Amino acid sequence: MSAAAIPADQIAALFRDHKEAIVHFLLQRVKCPDTAQDLSQETYLRLLRKDGLAHSDNLSGYLFRTAERLAIDFVRQRQRLSARLEALPDDTLCRLPQPEYAAIVNQRYRRLLDAIAALPAQCRHILLLRKIDELGYREIAEQLGISEKTVQRQLVKAMLHCHEYCRDTPP
After folding, report:
1. At a CB cut-off of 8 Å and minimum separation 6, what does 36 contact?
2. Does residue 152 lie in a domain region?
3. Domain assignment present for 94
4. How far is residue 170's CA from residue 110's CA, in Å, rounded to a whole number?
5. H-state helical runs in the chain
6. What are the backbone angles phi and psi of residue 99, rounded to the nearest 5°?
7. Domain span at residue 109?
8. Which UniProt keywords apply (predicted)?
9. What is the CATH number of the domain that holds 40?
């Protein structure tokens, strides 16, 4: 069976229909509501970036499988970090990054700042409240006087914009 392109509006409807179930599913695995929300957004983004799906007849299964893989990756990464931190001796010195690495990080940082600056005002504000101030969706919605769904949509829009801007802008 060949891969079929799934229209973005169909993916949006799929995500809208399964959003709560996906967040609940992820929450059982990662044990953190904010992480579950973030991983559900990443699940949606992965489907949007997918050029085609071989099995378009079971999109909800694919959606949950993608969420499950993201949760597994998150848990593994958290376990590896914990193991590395426990393995470090107490007298380990903090080494400064090499100049080449610092230059690359600085370029990426500037591109990300340019991408954020290019966002519409409300979209940028929501992104900063979520990622910098670490507010939850409900808190952002209450602070801005908008719905949680609007916060979610604007956050997805901001993340997609930043991802595409940083990917498409040469270093």
Report:
1. 23, 24, 26, 27, 30
2. yes
3. no
4. 12
5. 8-30, 33-49, 59-87, 99-117, 121-131, 137-144, 148-168
6. -55, -35
7. 99-168
8. Sigma factor, Transcription, Transcription regulation
9. 1.10.1740
> Domain boundary residue among 87, 107, 137?
87
In the block, tokens 């940028």 appear at 124
Q: Does some domain include residue 92?
A: no
Measure the CA–CA gap between 78 and 11, rounded to whole angstroms: 29
Q: How does pLDDT run across 105-138, given as a tens digit for each residue?
A: 888 889 989 999 999 999 999 999 998 898 999 9
The CATH number covering residue 103 comes to: 1.10.10.10
For residues 105 and 157, membership in a common domain is answered with yes
- Residue-wise pLDDT for 10-65, tens only, equals 878 888 899 999 999 999 999 999 999 999 999 988 888 776 665 566 788 888 99
pLDDT reading at 150 higher than 90: yes
CA distance 138 to 152: 10
